[in-house]
TrEMBL record:
Pfam families: AAA_31
Name of protein: ParA family protein
Domain AAA: 3-149
Length: 256
């Protein structure tokens, strides 16, 4: 998708767990020179410095700002940063990270964890659209619905949100078509308004879980290094490719 559209894309990992950073080969501050968005806020980094912290990946036009090991403390420090700078607490990410790189990329993707914290509030403030993957097992499904309800409350407390509730996209994840509970929960997702549900679903296939254990994805692992059936790997790749294509189609529609 990136090659076809000739886009420059920035991925900013706001989740202290750093799973997105690991997937792109960036694991652990101190191992290589890398800096996080939260560090940019805390240090009041200059625009030039922030741009230099966007690290290239093996894919042309795709850059990543990895998560940092101390990012989890941001919620404890955000109000102090706001008091020190005179910037609204919800706008720190926009001011110190998004604005400096806005004109240098066609798309900026923010990956935030499912936590009602300062990182998520800043992400919502800076975003034009929101993508949420929802697992269909009962416990995960219930907690995800509560999370979505909380997001609407957070948006009401943001001074000038860019995010239109109609630009919230949902993906049915870990879908098992033989599980009646999954089928029922998926039908519920179809009726959630004003959010929109992806046509494609992320099926519950073994390759997704097995490659994640090694910090890889179904796209980055070589078939010869995959311990399972290569046909199942190809199926997982096809499922993921369909989801990715739909994702970028929707995101590009919002950004145009």
């Amino acid at each position: 998708n990136l090659i076809r559209h000739q886009l420059r894309v920035a991925v900013i990992d706001m989740d202290p767990q750093g799973s997105t950073s690991v997937a792109f080969g960036f694991a652990g501050l101190g191992k290589v020179p890398q800096h996080s968005a939260i560090e940019a806020i805390a240090s009041r980094a200059t625009p030039e410095t922030v741009r230099s912290w966007m690290l290239p990946t093996s894919s042309d036009g795709l850059f990543v700002m990895p998560a940092g090991t101390a990012d989890g403390f941001f919620s404890l420090q955000a109000y102090q940063h706001a008091a020190d700078t005179g910037i609204n607490m919800t706008e720190l990410l926009t001011k110190y990270v998004i604005d400096p790189i806005r004109d240098h990329f066609d798309l900026i993707l923010l990956d935030a964890g499912p936590h009602l914290d300062a990182a998520l509030i800043n992400t919502l403030q800076a975003s034009d659209s929101l993508f949420v993957a929802i697992g269909l097992d009962p416990l995960e499904f219930d907690s995800s619905l509560k999370f979505l309800e909380s997001i609407h409350g957070l948006l009401a407390n943001i001074p000038s949100p860019n995010l239109d509730p109609a630009s919230v996209w949902l993906l049915g994840s870990k879908f098992d078509g033989t599980n009646p509970q999954h089928l029922d929960n998926y039908m519920m997702l179809k009726n959630l308004e004003p959010a929109k549900l992806f046509v494609n679903r992320m099926e519950q296939l073994r390759p997704f879980s097995s490659v994640t254990e090694d910090g890889r994805t179904v796209f980055t692992i070589q078939p010869k290094h995959y311990a399972g059936d290569t046909r199942s790997l190809r199926r997982a790749q096809n499922v993921a490719e369909n989801v990715v294509a739909e994702f970028f189609s929707n995101i590009l529609e919002v950004s145009n």
